[in-house]
Amino acid sequence: MYPPLKRNSLEKNSHQLPEEELSSKSIARKTIVSFVVLILLAVAGWMIFNKVKTEPKLSGTPKPLRQVLTVNEKVFSALFDPGKKVKEYPIDAAVKKVRVNGNAGMAGVIDTATWRLQVVRAIGDTLQVSLEDIKKLPKKDIVFNFKCIEGWSQVTHWGGVPLSTFIDAYQLTGQSQMNYIGLITPDKKYYVGIDMPSALHAQTLLCYEMNGAPLPMNQGYPLRLIIPVKYGIKHLKRIGTLFFSNEKPADYWAERGYDYYAGH
Ligand SMILES: Nc1nc2c(c(=O)[nH]1)N[C@H]1C(S)=C(S)[C@@H](COP(=O)(O)O)O[C@H]1N2
Ligand SMILES: [Mo]
Question: Is the CB–ligand 1 distance for residue 101 below 6 Å?
Fold first, then answer.
């Protein structure tokens, strides 16, 4: 029944669309409408761009853009599953020549005779932990695909104590009820903030080994963060101070316009 009916109506329609419908007059009208729409869109685009450019900045980023990043962060943290692990690889899959990237807060060398991890338990109450003591805690190795936000990645092998194990061992479980952990290099030139669920994730390490040997100086000796659920920007090298906070700690790359959460 349908096909003949359809064909009939089509034929009828095509007969109702005589050549004159596509006259130069109608083409001219359509061209003018398209042109006006184009101008309106261009003006709207220019107004949005100008608004973004002239808005006051929120932590280094124009407010509307920072608002997008904040929504991003809310979506990502809501989707974060603390039980889900990043893929791990066999040890021999790890590269031997590990890339070195980022040297903020890395000037000079560190002497472990005097270096201590400063753990701020409360204002005016700072615990000092030596590398030797950190090494006494159960060690975990991880081989995973380290991803930098610049677009490169490499499978690398790290060893250290899970941050959650360290927190339990040093009775910091009360502090770990707070929203964030902050990390700062000894010279305070590089600093990151980590949401607590990611900090307590089973694969997050206070790391002191790379490829089974002590961390090279330019890769964070004596202690760095390895946090496989996040991009490289959060893997702070050369930890000086660790603190707990309900407010978002200052974050080097977030201040320069990157996503604070930086999960993947
Ligand atoms: N102190 C410090 N840590 C840092 C950085 C930095 O500039 N300073 N850069 C970060 C970035 S962007 C990346 S990708 C990783 C790179 O670690 P790698 O040098 O061991 O490859 O370190 C992160 N940790
Ligand atoms: Mo990076």
Answer: yes
